[in-house]
């Protein structure tokens, strides 16, 4: 089986100004090692390649929800998959991320609220070993190394400022990895317009590697990218890799009737109480999701098809990161590539957003 209704040109794109060309769908792996056991992870990876999806994203932090016991396990699973299938490495573009400042996680660099240049290099070396590879195609900083509103925090608070590793030193560390041939291209995640612009400015001023990508949450329930970051990405030629296009399952419709604790439809928000306390579990996020589900059905689509097609067909998006827990779910998400979204449907989507904005921001 192959991906339906696409041309090679349509389904591949270049990341930023880098030399990386990737598929427009990226397999996210943060469920591997927690919700998804190793044999199923292998089956999902095999199926992705069979369907033509050759861009794979992971992180040293994964799986999610993060725990000290499973920290870095996802990378190890992928590394074992690559070891068992040596021919696969040449077919895939492999991305991973170094965790940012600890954010209260004591098992990340002993809980230190910073990420030094040496930390970046050491973390990359660890990822290379776990992934069983000599080079990481795209190496990203998972969240900013500075005081910044992220992960559901809406407002910048100057009172939280403290000394942290400057962007120049972060770029110098990444530059060392690129020069050593251990990393091909670099990127950011959970970044702001200022952060993206500053990384580009500093890199160009000092002859250091230029970021190719930024990986931020982007979905029908979180279009904060469209509030200024979109202009920055366009003008600086940085590619957007949206994660959580289904908003942790809210946009699949499975919680529409019985809410987030519906044990009959197990998903991250029903299984993990800690995740319901985050931005995805806000009551207003579920309220808006129900409206998008109803809109999809009015137009003959499933909620999943509408949510994914919105990202897949957006001019702002380079490659959409999909996270799945089964081969069947992977097939469903890939099949949504063939779904067209009419201008009238997009206008109806915008009308909902005008009233409900970005409840999962």
From TrEMBL:
GO terms for molecular function: oxidoreductase activity. Transmembrane segments: none annotated. Residues 24-352 form the NADP-dependent oxidoreductase domain. The keyword Oxidoreductase applies. InterPro entries: AKR_Detox_Biosynth, NAD(P)_OxRdtase_dom_sf, NADP_OxRdtase_dom. It comes from the Bacteria. Keywords: Oxidoreductase. This is Aldo/keto reductase. The lineage of its organism: Bacteria, Pseudomonadati, Pseudomonadota, Betaproteobacteria, Burkholderiales.
